[in-house]
Amino acid sequence: MGEQADTHTWMHRGIFALLAFAIVAVRLVPLDMRPTVWAGPDLLLAATLVWVARKPIYLPVPVIAGFFLMADFLFMRPPGLWAALTVILTEIIRRQHKEFRNMALLLEWGTVAIGIVGITVANRLVLAIAMAPQAPLTLALTEMIATILVYPAVVIVAHYVFGVTRSAPGEVGSKGQRL
User: Fold this and answer.
1) What are the CA-CA distances from residue 25 to residues 18, 21, 30, 127, 166 (Å)?
2) CB 78 within 8 A of CB 127
3) How far apart, in whole angstroms, are the C-alpha atoms of residue 48 and residue 90?
4) Rounded Cα gap, residues 33 and 47, in angstroms
5) Neighbour count for residue 161 (Cβ, 10 Å)
6) Residue in 99, 122, 121, 120 with CA at minimum distance from that of residue 111
7) 50 neighbors 154 (Cβ within 8 angstroms)
8) CA nearest to 70, candidates 115, 135, 17
9) Tens of pLDDT along 101-144?
10) What are the structural domain ranges in the chain?
């Protein structure tokens, strides 16, 4: 990723930053004071995975790590664990970017779903080994399933609202860098 980014790329990075701040702010607002029996989707994770699967140049690793580390601190999770697992998953997806270009949405959704399941299991396993307090298993499973189910909707919103489309083979930016 040594290429220089053009203004279009920086614009999409800014859009992602605003979207990420909005998602975190909405999750921090208490809507109900009673304990929940189910958890909603992790929209920050879903949006990040869509951005990386569609246009990996839009989200460099420091941006992903920074936002998820900030979210770890704000949501009182073990600092760095979820951020590290997310960075690992996004880098795996980034390496498969050329395969994602020609992949049907259903196959892309399945691949991302396997990744979400993998990092959720790894997170619970590391917390269990460290004997750290964890959310109940039902909450973790409902959040994981909800995140997987909301992925196609996030793809549609990212495509039609934010203009995050798949890179065409051989596509180059305004400064000649490969996308």
Assistant:
1) 10, 6, 10, 26, 28
2) yes
3) 8
4) 27
5) 10
6) 99
7) yes
8) 17
9) 888 889 999 999 999 999 999 999 999 999 998 988 999 999 99
10) 7-160
Distance CA 166, CA 152 (A): 14
**Matching residue, tokens 């990040």:** 48
Predicted TM-score of the model (pTM): 0.88
HEC-encoded secondary structure of the chain: CCCCCCHHHHHHHHHHHHHHHHHHHHHHCCCCCCCCCCCCCCHHHHHHHHHHHHCHHHCCHHHHHHHHHHHHHHCCCCCCHHHHHHHHHHHHHHHCHHHHHCCCHHHHHHHHHHHHHHHHHHHHHHHHHCCCCCCCHHHHHHHHHHHHHHHHHHHHHHHHCCCCCCCCCCCECCCCCEC
The Cβ of residue 133 has, within 10 Å, a number of other Cβ atoms equal to: 7
Q: What is the pLDDT of residues 29-75, one digit of tens each?
A: 877 777 777 788 999 999 999 999 998 888 999 999 999 999 999 99
Q: What token pair was written down for 162?
A: 């934010």
